[in-house]
Amino acid sequence: KLVVLLAGTGAHGKDVEADLIAAGMPVEMADRDTVVPIVTIADDEDQLAAFAEAFAAAVERRRGPPRHPSAAAAWTVVPQTVLAPREAFFADNETVPADAAVGRVSAELIAPYPPGVPVLAPGELITAQALDALREVQADGGRIAYAADPTLATLQVVAQPEREPGRRPSRRLAGRPGTARGDREGWRARPPSGVTSRANQGARRPREGPRPAWPR
């Protein structure tokens, strides 16, 4: 596997990839700054020479002003986990417009390809930074993998609980983007009837009689 950095040539990796595909020489993947061809044991010296010639010609055709390489969206967006991935994946979910999904909890995996590393995973908070990064990859010719809507017009989010009109949300759910986590935190704060919490266990009456002597 070869990773060729194109930033210094000014050529766009997607354009170079298109030229190579037209020449019958597809590569594994490409983004703005890199092209990744794979050499196998089935490729002989003549085939490698032909590929190198076609590759150099494609870069020359697409050459432009040099630029600094930019990090992929997967390396720049900091994930904010709200729910465990399994919990979010199996929770009730709904489809909302992408802009309305900011501040909600993702119920799906979304990974721009290349490199195929998720920017959003189930249970993570959808931020404006993450949405902007995904849209930037899409506008630059990248593929949005695994999303229910690859156009990014809509996103899948964990459903919010419905409440009666005029009724305030309970304290245990207030400020919690995810219902399941709010329920879990609320249970910790106020155990159900008949269930003894760890805090209550520690409040038992003191032991009667002398404390046993431990062997030294």
Structure description:
The chain is of the alpha+beta class and 216 residues long. It contains seven helices and seven strands; from the N terminus they run E-H-E-E-H-H-H-E-E-H-E-E-H-H. The chain has helices at 13-22, 45-61, 73-76, 85-90, 128-139, 179-189, 198-201; strands at residues 4-5, 29-30, 34-36, 93-97, 111-113, 143-145, 154-158. It has a three-stranded antiparallel beta sheet with strand order 1-3-2. Strand 2 and strand 3 form a beta hairpin. The protein is elongated and about 65 Å long. Residues 169-204 have low confidence and may be disordered.
Record the SSE blueprint.
Blueprint: E1 4-5, H1 13-22, E2 29-30, E3 34-36, H2 45-61, H3 73-76, H4 85-90, E4 93-97, E5 111-113, H5 128-139, E6 143-145, E7 154-158, H6 179-189, H7 198-201
Helix pairs in contact: 1-2
Number of helices: 7
Largest sheet: 3 strands, antiparallel
Biggest β-sheet: strands ordered side by side in the sheet:
1-3-2
Mean pLDDT score: 82
Distance between the termini: 63 Å
Supply Rg. 27 Å
Task: Put the structure in a nutshell.
The protein is an alpha+beta fold and about 220 residues long. It contains seven helices and seven strands, in the order βαββαααββαββαα. Helix 1 crosses helix 2 (about 45-60).
